[in-house]
Design brief:
Blueprint: E1 7-14, H1 21-39, E2 43-45, H2 59-62, H3 70-82, E3 85-87, E4 91-94, E5 100-107, E6 113-118, E7 124-126, E8 132-134, E9 146-150, E10 153-157, H4 166-174, E11 179-183, H5 190-206, E12 209-213, E13 230-232, E14 238-241, E15 247-254, H6 256-264, H7 267-270
Parallel strand pairs: 1-2, 2-3, 10-11, 11-12
Antiparallel strand pairs: 1-15, 3-5, 4-5, 5-6, 7-8, 9-10, 12-13, 13-14
Helix pairs in contact: 1-3
The structure holds 2-oxoglutaric acid.
Length: about 280
């Protein structure tokens, strides 16, 4: 698709979650309605695991099929009603053979599911005195890269821990992406250390926008999300950042900045591809 405009307004919804799925989804619905009314965004993003508590013991119970589950139907209707793109955070997806995935759905202004990204790198870490988490106890990993086209701009999709893998972001950049969106839920151990650093690194390495959307911080939850949903520009500068609580962050993206930095610091064309490469394997 040819580029219709270099400016795109995003609304990042940093939402507080609970154990009540319907309440979580209805909170997203009302925040989407309000964002559309007040800010008229072209694209709305939601947090990782926005309809369920974030924890391996909850994923199966809260899982739904896509695109006909409760949460999918709500997002599809809203996208169509308001003619916006919705990058629907993530939800636990009930997939083939009873497998559960951590999945991001993307809805077009016609209400169609344009993409579905299953988290490729499962969050399995054990930081002594900090956090232990093992998504692979209940989740399966996705095997597909996901690129969407919004008004001629290619946008890659990753989910939270996926941001740690430079190769994935590099492949999106090689495929022409100008932005990567990561619904994410960092925590109080790795958030302060790595949240901003990783976003600025991916933006700097690949000279593109990085957009993250986190749940709001809830110190009474079993998993305490870091918050600070963020937009980093292709110069690796933090363009905007939310605080910790529930918040709608509105960002006007100027895609011409991608071309500017790529021309002025032309590292892409200066790579020594005679010596190394990052290539997608056919699966
Ligand atoms: O990489 C991290 O430190 C956090 C990742 C995470 O919370 C997730 O993948 O859900």
């Amino acid at each position: 698709m040819s580029k219709t405009s270099n400016i795109m307004r995003l609304a990042l919804l940093q939402l507080k979650g609970s154990k009540d799925k319907v309440a979580n989804v209805q909170n997203a619905v009302s925040k989407i309605e309000a964002a559309v009314k007040e800010h008229k965004p072209r694209l709305i993003t939601l947090p990782e695991c926005f309809n369920a508590p974030y924890g391996t013991k909850y994923f199966r119970e809260y899982s739904e099929t896509i695109p006909d589950g409760y949460t999918s139907l709500q997002l599809s209707n809203l996208a169509k009603k308001h003619q916006v793109y919705i990058v629907g955070g993530t939800i636990p997806e009930l997939g083939e053979n009873d497998a559960i995935y951590n999945t991001c759905t993307v809805w077009s202004p016609t209400g169609d599911l344009v993409a579905k990204h299953r988290k490729m790198h499962l969050f399995d870490i054990d930081v002594k005195g900090g956090i232990r988490f093992k998504e692979s106890e209940t989740l399966s990993a996705g095997n597909d890269f996901t690129i969407i086209d919004v008004d001629g701009h290619k946008i890659g999709i990753g989910i939270c821990y996926d941001i740690r893998f430079e190769e994935m972001a590099r492949l999106y950049r090689n495929a022409g992406c100008e932005m990567i969106i990561y619904p994410a839920a960092f925590n109080m151990t790795t958030g302060p250390l790595h949240w901003e650093l990783l976003q600025r690194s991916r933006a700097n390495d690949n000279q593109l926008f990085v957009v993250t959307t986190s749940p709001a911080r809830d110190t009474s939850a079993e998993y305490v999300a870091y918050g600070h949903s963020m937009v980093v520009n292709p110069w690796a500068k933090v363009q905007q950042s939310a605080s910790e609580g529930e918040e709608t962050l509105v960002a006007d993206i100027d895609f011409s900045e991608v071309e500017q930095v790529r021309q002025q610091i032309p590292v892409f064309g200066q790579r020594r591809l005679d010596l190394y490469a990052t290539e997608k394997k056919s699966t």
